[in-house]
Write a structure and sequence with these properties.
Elements: H1 2-20, H2 40-54, H3 58-70, H4 99-112, H5 119-133, H6 165-174, H7 179-185, E1 193-195, H8 196-204, H9 218-227, E2 237-239, H10 253-259, H11 266-271, H12 275-286, H13 290-302, H14 326-339, H15 345-354, H16 375-389, H17 393-405, H18 434-447, H19 454-468, H20 500-509, H21 514-521, E3 528-530, H22 531-539, H23 553-563, E4 573-575, H24 588-594, H25 601-606, H26 613-620, H27 623-638
Antiparallel strand pairs: 1-2, 3-4
The protein binds protoporphyrin IX containing FE (2 copies).
């Protein structure tokens, strides 16, 4: 009888669980048709499956990531944000893993359709795919979350493993979950590991008794004492599910272990003794209810306090906030629409004028805007003619795009003349290509004055040059406007000696991931540098008085004797890529790096740093992949902090503000 009543409670609770899950505007199949013909969920699943094949422990990483994200300010990917006091620096998050997989997925979905898929949805979808791969029951989750903009360690309130069931339940209830949700969610401890530091108390000094936890199974106690010897100097890891055949499997083994007093964390075993949870553990251990109920619990967890619609943002890089003003603009646009037709037209007109809003970049932006002339064709013809005259222009334009976009966004601020303008800053002294931009601008001004921005010219011309040099054709969205500020003091470009982690950080601050960085540095497949920058690697690496041991000795010899001999009185140039390929856009640069033939310190460092080396290896082995993704990376860089709509201006002369 009691059993029946309990079962009825389960059903009631299940209904309650589903009923109270506040999905907001989340939808099943949310991304259908939003990413061209591509299937977003299939892309995510592909990346998760590939990782799972190499590392099945990724299932645990993703489940914990979902929990730690959703419990703090809701499922808004706030845990993914980097920063000195971000959520990931809080104590309970120090052993959270899987960020790199999320980055990998994000790169794949951004390549398919930039700015569409949120990091928050990626976490939820990836955890779902991982569960199915690990033997759990496949399930669907509604999507449409947006990414949050706040991630602070001080917001992290997560239950501790040393809490009593009632204390943990209190935290769960504050977040809108019930006891059933809590026990089911903790079923995630059917995979993954913990550390001896969380278990030692149960092994040697339970509740200050100086003795082991009497509720721990003796065989388990002996096993764990082996893994976690007293006063050990290393914090070893312990499987959370102590059934050796089920460590990486999503099944009800965790609850069966609890029923045999073989739970590992204090909170795990406590579930099997507290009267409010023991019966649920018993039920899950003895039936096959766990798989579908676990799925429901994860869907509910994944719907906790989500941002949807126009809330939050879609980050380009899950580790950094998006810096454009899209969201607030959309709100203002909405405000404008709502009030149109209302009486306060005059006030609104003032508002319209006062607010300069971002429109978005568009494909074919200039169609029909330049009489009957095709703006992109005019640009391409001039670039092509110039390239036939001097193929080095490809390097000039690529570097110009980078140095423009990285400083105050892609607003042609680099083109402005003046005694203290950006082009006078040290890293820009060797930038060239300004005259070609002038030439293009003159042609466009005579076709349709005041229409095409200098910022767009840089982006379109670079694209055309890349294609001429063997790159893959890529479409660029246009509609940028020109900035009005250009100051040498604002130029914060990476130095060639920068370390890989520091460079990653610099890129991340601008919303670019590590892969973007490695791809963009692929621009060094063309062009040159100077002996003044290479000499330290040839003659006095890190003050050693010797060459850099990470430079191929043959290259050292050639450069020492031919390009940059001691005492040379002029600053000779050095090809950044293999001389036979230095005018071509291809993956030869990465192959050179693998042969220790990188030229700039940062180039070679990419092939040495463990974070970037695998990317270098992959790109070195696949020219097609490089060509496709290089184009995508340039598109992404070209959309960085752009001015659109009524912002900025269209300069008549790229060297001067109107
Ligand atoms: C009362 C609630 C919970 C507490 C106190 C708790 C505590 C912990 C602790 C202490 C660890 C070990 C961390 C380490 O040693 O580095 C851990 C690991 C883990 N937790 Fe929880 N947890 C709770 C709920 C959850 C939930 C709801 C989920 C997911 C839905 C989850 C998923 C995991 C996973 C998968 C691991 C293994 C991680 C890995 O292998 O890297 N936990 N948890
Ligand atoms: C960590 C990032 C980067 C650093 C530290 C860096 C540094 C440098 C340096 C020191 C030079 C040689 C300048 C000279 O000797 O005159 C150079 C050349 C060049 N850089 Fe970069 N760069 C970086 C990223 C990029 C990116 C993202 C692009 C374009 C997408 C790019 C495109 C180029 C090109 C094409 C050249 C050759 C220019 C020429 O032939 O005149 N670089 N870079």
């Amino acid at each position: 009888m009691e059993h029946l009543m309990r079962a009825a409670t389960v059903v009631a609770l299940l209904v309650l669980s589903l009923g109270t899950a506040c999905h907001g505007a989340l939808q099943y199949g949310f991304y259908n048709g939003k990413c061209g013909y591509k299937d977003v969920e299939a892309i995510i699943q592909g990346v998760v499956s590939a990782r799972f094949a190499r590392d099945p422990t990724i299932v645990a990483a993703l489940l914990r990531l979902q929990f730690h994200d959703c419990f703090v300010l809701g499922c808004d990917a706030s845990i993914l944000l980097d920063g000195p006091s971000s959520e990931k620096t809080a104590f309970p998050n120090l052993s959270v893993r899987g960020y790199d997989l999320i980055d990998e997925i994000k790169a794949a979905v951004e390549a398919a359709c930039p700015g569409v898929v949120s990091c928050a949805d990626i976490i939820i979808a990836a955890a779902r795919d991982a569960v199915a791969l690990a033997g759990g029951m496949p399930y669907r989750v509604p999507m449409g979350r947006r990414d949050g903009t706040v991630g602070l360690a001080s917001n992290v309130v997560l239950p501790s493993p040393f809490m009593s069931v009632q204390q943990a339940l209190q935290i769960y209830q504050q977040k809108g979950f019930n006891v059933f949700d809590m026990v089911l969610q903790l079923g995630a401890h059917t995979v993954g590991v913990t550390h001896c530091s969380f278990v030692d108390g149960r092994l040697y000094d339970f509740s200050g008794s100086g003795k082991p936890d009497p509720s721990m199974n003796t065989a388990l106690l002996n096993d764990l004492k082996q893994i976690c010897p007293p006063q050990s100097s290393t914090d070893n890891i312990v499987d959370l599910d102590q059934n050796p055949t089920s460590v990486n499997r999503v099944d009800n083994s965790y609850y069966r272990q609890l029923m045999q007093n073989r739970g590992v964390l204090p909170i795990d075993q406590a579930l099997a003794s507290d009267p409010s949870t023991r019966w649920i553990v018993q039920l899950l251990a003895s039936t096959n209810l766990f798989p579908p109920l676990f799925n429901n619990a994860l869907v509910k967890l994944g719907s906790n306090q989500v941002l949807t619609g126009t809330q939050g943002q879609i980050r380009t890089n899950c580790r950094a906030l998006q810096t454009t003003l899209h969201h607030s603009c959309r709100r203002r646009e909405k405000a404008k629409m709502v009030s149109r037709g209302a009486a306060a037209t005059v006030a609104l007109l003032a508002l319209n004028l006062a607010v300069s809003c971002h429109a978005s970049l568009q494909y074919g932006f200039y169609k029909g805007k330049c009489k009957n002339q095709d703006v992109e064709t005019i640009i391409r013809n001039i670039v092509t003619a110039s390239w036939f005259g001097d193929q080095k222009i490809v390097a000039g334009l690529l570097r110009l795009q980078f140095h423009d976009c990285f400083v105050r966004g892609c607003d042609a601020s680099l083109l402005l003349d003046g005694p203290t303008s950006e082009k006078t800053a040290f890293p820009n002294l060797t930038v060239f290509g300004y005259d070609l931009i002038d030439q293009i601008k003159a042609a466009l001004e005579s076709a349709c004055p005041g229409v095409v921005s200098c910022a767009d010219i840089i982006i379109a011309a670079t694209r055309d040059a890349v294609v001429l040099a063997g790159g893959q054709k890529y479409e660029v969205q246009l509609g940028r406007r020109d900035g009005t500020v250009s100051q040498a003091s604002l130029v914060n470009l990476p130095a060639p000696e920068i370390s890989v982690p520091a460079a990653i950080q610099l890129y991340a601050q601008r919303g670019f991931g590590t892969r973007d960085m490695v791809l963009l540095l692929g621009a060094h497949t063309v062009g040159v540098t100077h002996c003044s920058i290479v000499n330290s690697r040839l003659y006095n690496w890190n003050g050693s008085g010797k060459p850099d041991p990470n430079m191929d000795p043959f290259y050292v010899m050639v450069l020492q004797n031919v390009a940059c001999p001691i005492g040379q009185t002029f600053d000779n140039f050095v090809f950044l890529d293999d001389p036979s390929s230095v005018l071509k856009v291809d993956n030869s640069y990465y192959n050179q790096l693998l042969r220790k033939r990188g030229i700039l310190p940062i180039d070679q460092a990419l092939a040495l740093d463990p974070t970037t080396k695998p990317i270098v290896q992959q790109l070195a082995g696949n020219n097609g992949l490089f060509l496709t993704q290089f184009g995508q990376a340039l598109v992404k860089m070209g959309a960085f902090q752009v001015l659109t709509g009524t912002q900025g201006q269209i300069r008549q002369n790229c060297r001067r503000v109107n």
